[in-house]
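Case study.
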Amino acid sequence: MALHLDGISQPQLTLGRKLWRINWSLIVLLTLTASIGFAMLYSAAGANLDPWASKQIMRFGFGVSALIAIALIDIRIWMRLAYPIYGVALILLVLVDVAGIIGMGAQRWIVLGPIQLQPSEIMKIALVLALARYFHGLGTENIGQPIFLIVPLIMVLVPIYLVVIQPDLGTAILILLGSGAIFFVAGVRIWKFAVVTVIGIGAIPLGWQFLREYQKNRVLTFLNPERDPLGAGYHILQSKIALGSGGIFGKGFLQGTQSHLSFLPERQTDFIFTMLAEEFGLAGGLGLLGLYCLLLVYGYAIALGSRSQFGRLLGMGITSTFFLYVFINVAMVMGLIPVVGVPLPLISYGGTAMLSILFGFGLLMCVHVHRDVRIGRRGGG
Amino acid sequence: MATNRQRETDQTKLLTRRAVLLAGGKLALLSTLVGRLYYLQVMESGRYTMLAEDNRINMRLLSPRRGLIVDRNGEPIATNQQIYRVVVVAEQTRDLDATLNRLGMVIPIGERDRRRVLREARRKRGFVPVMVRENLSWEEVARVEVNSPDLPGVGIEVGLSRDYPIGHAAAHVLGYVAAVSESELTGDPLLELPEFKIGKNGVEKIYDLTLRGTAGTSQVEVNALGRVVRELGREEGQMGRPVALTLDMGLQNFVMNRLGEESAAVVVLDVHNGDVVALASNPSFDPNSFSKGLNAREWEELLSNPRAPLTNKAIAGQYAPGSTFKVCVALAALESGLITPDHRATCVGHIEVGNLKLHCWRSNAKLGFGHGTLNLYEAIARSCDVYFYDIARRVGLERIAQTARKLGLGAPTGIDLPGERPGLIPSREWKAATVGQPWHLAETLMLGMGQSYILATPLQLAVMTARIANGGNMVRPHLARDLVAADRVGERGGQRAQPRPLDHVESLGFSPANLAVVQRGMHMVTNEPGGTAFNQRIKDKDLAMAGKTGSVQVRRITLAERLAGVRKQDDIPWHERDHGLFISYAPVERPRFACAVIIEHGIGGARAAAPVARDVLIEAQKLIPPRGRQIAEARG
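After joint prediction, the assembly is written out as follows.
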């Protein structure tokens, strides 16, 4: 019955209409942000497109195409696929623990022919999809009952466990906080978060034993950077020197001494923000943060503009994950939190991260395109 | 359906409320980032800018070239020679131990060198290259270069090494240079350079700061691995200033050759200005072996040699002056006014003091007993002990000691060499304090022939002779022609040598007539029949020398031996034989050079030391034009 009443606002969207509904300004914004990344990768290679910038441009081009394709697929199909995708991601995570190759002392990659897959990146999106579907189906009256929270908690904790043993602390935290954001906007009572937080803090001594030696070192070094200025503290100290010496307007494009003389570690990946802030100063740093804010605003607007709970939760989940990427990376390079391997979205060099971010924005765009589609509890149109 | 609607609206409201809360949280976190960015890039910017520059720019010290040492004719006697050395930069190699192992397979590295490198690498800053081995042959250089890909942080440096072209002839004067020991580090980064050497002895030590020069700097931009990207600026160091010596290398070489195998010391002074024209101590050593690194066996040999090649006997050997001291006793007696040159005494071969019987050297069956009656001239010429016992008793310890000090004995002469010993002029107080017994009259008498407790270095004897020969002027011996060492004990106080002030002639206050008497006596020693060194005289009248012999017992002759008759010196072991001494000056008219010779265990002054002095003084007068004297006379 409701379907009939809502029929006016629920037309069958044609491909043309969908394309028309795509938020092209968001794509322009994404391209602009990514272009800053291209410039930084060009600089990191010593004014050279190779080896990073050219590859990154190709990946972005492919990613944007994928984004549009994803956006055009009906949101209900995505909802139906949410659990299968989650299942596949889970299987891949298990596989990577069993047959993954060693990279940087951690098992994170799975090789499928020419493609290296990082299942933890897929899981970030898959979990957002799965949780959005679950809470969409749950409804307000059930959300207050703890019994209904057991299933989503398991859905969250299983992949977190698999990621932690890889070990990839950064992604685990990202998944945990991203999922927390969905639980929060879905309406889980705030006191429950308090309980979980207290339990979490209580479990820190226990969790400490699970950490690898280098992870313990990172945390200890963060708490006292002078502990080991030439070892684990070296990266963060050099990063701070690079940031600080950048000043307000920076040393100029291609002029960053810290980055170009290799004092800055991982300048093309995790520490690319430092390089940007060294060469373009406070102005450049704030500019990029401004672009990210704009993207977040778009994310919020799209999420809140959706008529379905699934769309809203999906939008909020993706926006929050995106925010966490930015915050953890930038706070890390500025010495606010321990060094955890989280890339700067759209900027850092790296294939899987770029694709999973654009995949996420594809889903966000899908929410936007299908903003007026109402979805029943069980996923019906 | 209405409930459905209602529920949906509630859900939307809840979500919107939560979303706003979440957005607030995110905004707060983003503000933290902005605040942090502002703190780092604006408030702390200055500090981090400096740290970035520190990161980027390394100052490298360029060690200066060491100043040359030349002799009085400008002949270089200490120079710098190009050598190749292999160094390792600790921070450029991941595992220093493994790198040294691999290097050890390419060129031989001693276990000691290896341990030293590891020790130094820990102590020095990581970017400071540590020297592994020096004096590499061309073949070794090539082997290291070929294998350089396997030897991270290892490099070949071209450097300069100290070279002494005349080797051992002036080793005691020049000293040597060697690597800085840990106790010598003052915090001056120059001293931490691997190839840097400092003077460890002799002129090299006492004029080290003058010779050292000023370090240059090279500013280089380095990357995080410490590899030099480019040089930003370079300031060449300043080479150390040269030090010109008063030594005449021709004469010095002659002296060393003349001494042959003897354990001996020879000092030749310009009597007017104190120039040390030769200062020899035999046997010697090769100072090049010190700057190139000595192995343990060579070092052990130098240390255990009974003829003490490492000791500079000319300034650190202290000997009883024996009969050479009689010139001083004679002068003291004349100056006291108690004795005239015509004072006569009779020698019967001995003299009695209380219940002691002191013998003259001419007191045995072979030589006869006693000199008979002599005046002062004859007593000096024949070196009669009894005559000097007699006048020493009359003049007394104090006056003799006072004259001896005025003539330069009993205290360091102040020559610009480290390690000079003061000698000893005894006094009643000194004996009471050190021996704990009162002074005996017999000891005053013994002092008359230069024997009780008194000690002098060959340099002091040369100074004494010069002061007598030049008419009683206070010459001070010195080796540097134009410089005065800031501190003669060789402490590195950071003070540089000062320019030498113009010599001004300072009289010691002796009566010229009295000095003429002593000079006349010394003239007779060598030039009149009956003089103890008549046979060793210089026959050329223009070059003729005056002198005084001395023989010093190393071992007491026992009464039993004396009663048994002559004990032949040649029969007793080398180290128990008497020392032979001779002091002299030449020419007799208008003296130019004073010379002191000691031949350890050479048996007699006339027999061993006088011939050396004769040959040396002839050579000195031939080699060195009388420039110094003309200047001195012009000044006078």
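Observations recorded in class. The first helix of chain B runs from residue 2 to 43. Confidence is low (pLDDT under 50) at residues 488-494 of chain B. We will return to this complex in the next lecture.
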